[in-house]
Structures are given as structure tokens and as C-alpha cells.
């Protein structure tokens, strides 16, 4: 368990560092700004203390904000993501399946990949929507924000899939 | 009371979440009203250490571009040396010497941290109030404008980048004899800035140089903003939509100059007196 925890923490840190040093720097145009570091929230097991999850997500967001001069954009988005994830996990998932989750089993016990994809896409979109709403910070850009969030969500999910595949190869 | 306590206990998680959201949104809001300093920014030393590490690494990859930009600037400055000019008329020879009062002073600074992916981008530089940096000073890159200082700590300053939706500058286009309109960024492409308020009757074409105007208090006059990239006409409007290709490449920012306008205080006092008179 301790080794799993250590591995998880290192992985989360690596994701945040990667976001700050590399992904933020790559220019993919106005519409696409991927943030695959949120993978670390998805990797948490369902059985985890919810206050701890919320605090961890918020702190990680705040850390990124401090480095990239973005106020509390990442923090707000990550907190929302953590909150929504916990809500979905508790309300919509099979409670029996929750007991099975540990650090080792990163994929939730969903019926099919399609359900899992919807779960990830929806939560990622929520995170991105909060982030870009705070970034643009005006209601006149509502549809622009939706478009940017949607495009970035697709890019983020692709990158997260890539990370997960490469991390699982070993 | 018991009811209240029960309510809190029942919704504790939601309340914690709402508190965290409130805190972060206040951060963003305060960040937008950029006169105030805020809680988490790159003025703290831990963040700066890490950010500097990143720029130190990135600087190696930018070296050749930075060198090119500096060499280009040296060339431009050398061409302005008085020794390169023939005095046209010996009877009206103008001698440029240092007797006149200096209007602008320059100091160099290194970029510690910058972003280009946000709507409100900032630059952190490694000179602060102890080095003489003050709020509202202009910041230039070797090739053009970079931003305006909005917050200073002892050893670092926060600069409102030109690619920030809250940035404003007054331009002039000498080739079209035009001194009006305003420069601001629409938040889309970090290499293009927008020039607004240019009447359709102005003779403006792509490729013309856009410089900072003489009316600007913060920026010295004649500093390159960029070159006109596209002149668009939107139906019905009496103004052009003009895209300006920025002279500064904000993705390769490494060394900057902080400009202090030595008479800023006097201009400020006059302006304040004028507004108070109204």
C-alpha cells in the first residue's frame, strides 16, 4: 500500500511538472489547450477519503496556478472536478465495485469501455469549462469558451489515454 | 442551533467545496483587477526558484534566436550613430551630445517566467523596487514592446504582457501619417495584436510599420509594435479591423529592457491637477 501511495504521488508530481514544463509551452492554436495532468485525479481509488481527494486536487491546482500566474483557475477547475467525480462515483456507480478499487486497479469496474469514455469525457469537459470560463472571465465569450473547452477536452483525453498506455507498458 | 449544526454536518463536503471555489474565484477576480497585488504570484521565492530553473533550461534552446534578435538590435542602433550621418549643411550642424536632459533611462532585466497560453498573460522579471523598477514603467524586448510593470517586489516585478486582454497602447503609423486608434489584444493568437479605431478613409496597407506614438506616456515614442499583417473590412463598420504582426516573439522572450520615464512624476501631478480641476 505504501509503495502504491508513493508511486501514485510521484506519478501525480510528474504529471504536474510535465504540464508546467512542456504541455503549457506547446502552441496548438487558440482552440486547443490540453491539460492531461488531471489524470492524477482520475487515478485515485473510489474508497479514498473524499475530503482528502478534494484537498489534493485543490492543492495541485493551486501549485500550477502559482507557477503559471493564473490566479485560481486551475485550483477552481480541479476542485470542481474532484467534487463532481466523488458525486458521480457515489451516486452513479455500483457500490459493490467500489470495494475492489485500489491503486493497482486504475480502471473503474465499468461495464464497457464506452461507459468509461463518457465518464472521463464528461468530467474532463467540466474541468475545462470551469478553467476557460475563469480564463476568459466574461459572459460575452460563452460560446467561444464552450468551443475551446470541447476541443481541449478531446486533446486532453487523447493525451491521457497515451499516458496511461505508455505507463502500463513497462 | 441543533438544526443548524446538523445541516452543516450533513453538507460539510459541499460547504468545503464552495469555500474552496470562492477562494479561487476571488483569486482570479483580484487577478483581473490588476491594480491590487494578490496572494499567489511569482513574487515568492520558492515559485521563482522553480520558474527560473525552467527558464534557465529553456534559454539554451532559445540562444540562437536571442542572439539574432540582439545582433539585429545592435545593427539598428549602430546605424543610428551620429558618425554614420553626413552633416548636410555645415551652417546648421546639429551636434548631438549629452548636455540635454535625459527623458528615458533603460535598465536590463532577465525574464524569470512568462506565459502565452492564457487570456491574461504576465511576465516576471528579475529586477524589483530595490533596482529602481516602479509601477507603470514600460518594458521592451530587443525587437519591440513587451509590456508594462504592474507590481513590484524587492527583487522581482510583474509585467502585464502586451498579449494580455487588458493591455492598451497608443500606436502611430508613420508611413500613413496616422496617429490615432488603440492597440489591444483579442486573446486569440499570441503573435498577432489588434489595432482598433482606424477610419476606413486612412490609406493603410499590409507591411506598414506600427510604432508607439508620441502621445504615449509610458512607452518612448517610435518603439516598434509590429507590422500590419491584414486589413479587414467588416460590413457596415466605418472602421478597419487591423491585425498587426507583433515585433516581439513572446514565446522566445529572454532579455528585456525596463524603461523609466524620468518625468513621469511631473506628468502625473499635472494630470491629477487637471482632473481635480474638473
How would you summarize the topology of this molecule?
The complex is a heterodimer of chains A (170) and B (278).
Chain A: H1 2-21, H2 39-42, H3 50-68, H4 73-92, H5 95-98, H6 113-136, H7 142-169
Chain B: H1 2-10, H2 12-32, H3 45-79, E1 104-114, E2 120-125, E3 138-141, E4 144-152, E5 157-164, E6 171-172, E7 182-184, E8 192-199, E9 209-212, E10 224-233, E11 239-246, E12 255-261, H4 264-277
Antiparallel strand pairs in B: 1-2, 1-12, 2-5, 3-4, 3-12, 4-5, 6-9, 7-8, 8-11, 9-10, 10-11
Explained architecture:
- The complex is a heterodimer of chains A (170) and B (278).
- Chain A is mainly alpha-helical and 170 residues long.
- Chain A is globular, with a radius of gyration of 16 Å.
- Chain A is 70% helix and 0% strand.
- Chain A is built from 7 helices and no strands.
- Chain A has a single domain, classed as Arp2/3 complex 21 kDa subunit ARPC3 (Orthogonal Bundle).
- Chain B is of the alpha+beta class.
- Chain B folds into 3 domains: 25 residues; 103 residues, Rod shape-determining protein MreC, domain 1 (Thrombin, subunit H, Beta Barrel), CATH 2.40.10.340; 79 residues, Thrombin, subunit H.
- In chain B, 28% of the residues lie in helices and 29% in strands.
- Chain B is built from 4 helices and 12 strands, in the order αααββββββββββββα.
- Chain B has a 6-stranded antiparallel beta barrel. A 6-stranded antiparallel β-sheet of chain B has the order 6-9-10-11-8-7, with no helix packed on it.
- In chain B, strand 3 and strand 4 form a beta hairpin.
- Chains A and B meet through helix 3, helix 4 and helix 6 of A and helix 2, helix 3 and strand 2 of B.
Amino acid at each position: 500500500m505504501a509503495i502504491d501511495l508513493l508511486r501514485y504521488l510521484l506519478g501525480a508530481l510528474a504529471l504536474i511538472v510535465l504540464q508546467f514544463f512542456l504541455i503549457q509551452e506547446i502552441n496548438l492554436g487558440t482552440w486547443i489547450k490540453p491539460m492531461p495532468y488531471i489524470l492524477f485525479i482520475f487515478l485515485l481509488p473510489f474508497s479514498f477519503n473524499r475530503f482528502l481527494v478534494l484537498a489534493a486536487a485543490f492543492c495541485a491546482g493551486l501549485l500550477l496556478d502559482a507557477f503559471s500566474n493564473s490566479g485560481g483557475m486551475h485550483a477552481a477547475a480541479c476542485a470542481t472536478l474532484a467534487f463532481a467525480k466523488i458525486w458521480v462515483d457515489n451516486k452513479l456507480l455500483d457500490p459493490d465495485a467500489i470495494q475492489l478499487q485500489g491503486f493497482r486497479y486504475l480502471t473503474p469496474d465499468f461495464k464497457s469501455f464506452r461507459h468509461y469514455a463518457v465518464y472521463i469525457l464528461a468530467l474532463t469537459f467540466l474541468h475545462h469549462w470551469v478553467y476557460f470560463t475563469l480564463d476568459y472571465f466574461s459572459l460575452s465569450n460563452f460560446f467561444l469558451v464552450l468551443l475551446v473547452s470541447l476541443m481541449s477536452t478531446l486533446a486532453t483525453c487523447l493525451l491521457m489515454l497515451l499516458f496511461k498506455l505508455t505507463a502500463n507498458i513497462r | 442551533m441543533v438544526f443548524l449544526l446538523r445541516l452543516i454536518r450533513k453538507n460539510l463536503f459541499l460547504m468545503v467545496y464552495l469555500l474552496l471555489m470562492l477562494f479561487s474565484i476571488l483569486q482570479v477576480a483580484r487577478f483581473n483587477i490588476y491594480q491590487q497585488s494578490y496572494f499567489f504570484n511569482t513574487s515568492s521565492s520558492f515559485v521563482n526558484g522553480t520558474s527560473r530553473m525552467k527558464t534557465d533550461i529553456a534559454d539554451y534552446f532559445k540562444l540562437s534566436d536571442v542572439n539574432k534578435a540582439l545582433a539585429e538590435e545592435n545593427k539598428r542602433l549602430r546605424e543610428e550613430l551620429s558618425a554614420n550621418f553626413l552633416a548636410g549643411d555645415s551652417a546648421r550642424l546639429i551636434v548631438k551630445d549629452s548636455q540635454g536632459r535625459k527623458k528615458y533611462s533603460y535598465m536590463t532585466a532577465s525574464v524569470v517566467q512568462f506565459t502565452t497560453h492564457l487570456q491574461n498573460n504576465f511576465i516576471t522579471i528579475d529586477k524589483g523596487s530595490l533596482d529602481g523598477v516602479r509601477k507603470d514603467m514600460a518594458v521592451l524586448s530587443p525587437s519591440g514592446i513587451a509590456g508594462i510593470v504592474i507590481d513590484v517586489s524587492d527583487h522581482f516585478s510583474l509585467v502585464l504582457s502586451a498579449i494580455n486582454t487588458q493591455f492598451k497602447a497608443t500606436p502611430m503609423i508613420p508611413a500613413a501619417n496616422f496617429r490615432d486608434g488603440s492597440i489591444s489584444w483579442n486573446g486569440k493568437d499570441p503573435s498577432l495584436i489588434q489595432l482598433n479605431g482606424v477610419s476606413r478613409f486612412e490609406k493603410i496597407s499590409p507591411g506598414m510599420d506600427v510604432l508607439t506614438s508620441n502621445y504615449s506616456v509610458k512607452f518612448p515614442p517610435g518603439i516598434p509594435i509590429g507590422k500590419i499583417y491584414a486589413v479587414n473590412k467588416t460590413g457596415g463598420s466605418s472602421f478597419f479591423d487591423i491585425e498587426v504582426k507583433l515585433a516581439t516573439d513572446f514565446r522566445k522572450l529572454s532579455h528585456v529592457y525596463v524603461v523609466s520615464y524620468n518625468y513621469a512624476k511631473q506628468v502625473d501631478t499635472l494630470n491629477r491637477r487637471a482632473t481635480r480641476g474638473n
